[in-house]
Amino acid sequence: MRHPDDHPQPPSTSPGPPASPASGAFAPGAQTRDDRLLSALLTTAFVVLLAGALLRYVLKHGDSDRLPWIVGLSVVLAVVQVAGQARLGSRRAGRVRLAVVVACWVVVVLLAPSFAWCAVPLIHTALRLLPTRSAVALVTALATLVVLAELRLADGFDPNHLLLPPVVAALATGVFVYLTREATRRQHLIDDLVRTRRELAATERREGTLAERQRLSREIHDSLAQGLSSQNMLLQAADRQWDTDPEAARTHLRTAASIAAHGLTEARRLVHDLAPADLAEGAGLAQALATLAARESRDGLTVRFHAEGPDTHLPDQVASALLRTAQGALANIREHSGARTAALTLTCLDDTVALDVADDGRGFPAPEPGGTRDPLGDPDPLRGHGLPAIRARLRQLGGTLAIESTPGEGAVLTATIPLTPATPPAP
Fold this sequence. Notes:
By secondary structure, this protein is α+β, with helices and mostly antiparallel strands. It has helices at residues 33-60, 67-86, 91-111, 119-129, 132-153, 159-241, 246-272, 285-296, 316-337, 387-396; strands at residues 302-308, 341-348, 352-359, 400-405, 411-418. It has a five-stranded mixed beta sheet with strand order 1-2-3-5-4, covered by helices on one side. Strand 4 and strand 5 form a beta hairpin. Helix 2 (67-86) packs antiparallel against helix 3 (91-111), helix 5 (132-153) runs antiparallel to helix 6 (159-241) and helix 6 (159-241) runs parallel beside helix 9.
């Protein structure tokens, strides 16, 4: 039966934001606030269009024998759609509801063509719930039925009735598919970024752990290991002189006990915050170096300390690195050089601090740049770190290490650290 109705104007068909295909718009637990708002908007639009079409049919065809069927199907459509919005459920349940709504809608459109534009919200729902190919097939079928309904309503041939529904459907489908694919690509990029950040964090943790282990090994070498080495030498000397020179043996024992007490303090400080004991309680680097020089002046070795430049408060890391450098250098001078005097010179400038450690010992051939031989270390690689440890500690702060030595004329070790922020060179 053909009714001479003018078709209503089509509503806006701008699609809402797509749901990620991976998550599913109606998957349990996957609903976001935007998903719920879009579902509510589609349901509201469908119910409003349905109510408008039903009111129009009642006003124009209130005496039709099809009215009870039209009213009944409209109520079923509204109830199913609203119930689906109130209880979203799973994707499969959403597809079942869509099938029921589409079937009822097809019947009501065949009875009253003016209900055709209720298809617009159904197009969006199909695109959100179905795979792309299935959704496109359903949208094509819906658009075809809308065209047929519009042609039934028209009094004559109108190109808009033939072109407008397919264009609206194609536009909604194209925009939705594009946004969905764009959202998928962005999600992949986000996943890659998150994975890369996790891998980077894990790498940084591993590198940090390794760097901390190396730093701890240097700290232990320059404090506890050097003290234990000195104690061993003193106890051996005391054992040799115990019978022939008891007084000298007792002096060696007292010195060894003093070194042991200092080593105990170093160990406790190392456990507490890994700072040199001589720098504890706010002591400056100059005072710490003076204390070190006085403590190391024994057994034929005299160590002098001299400071040049203003009394600058140095960062803790810089002061600790230079003090450890002095400790390691003096330990090597005592054990390997045979020197009678050594000098520590601290020079503080506006942007640089330098520490010179000089001795009048036997000296050694200057190492070649990039060489692997450690002239300040023990020949036994199991006994210490020596020069590589000093160089690595300074490199971490952007500093440098220079060595000048000639066999028979002693050696001068110069450690320099910039006080302005600098990027440490690559290891």
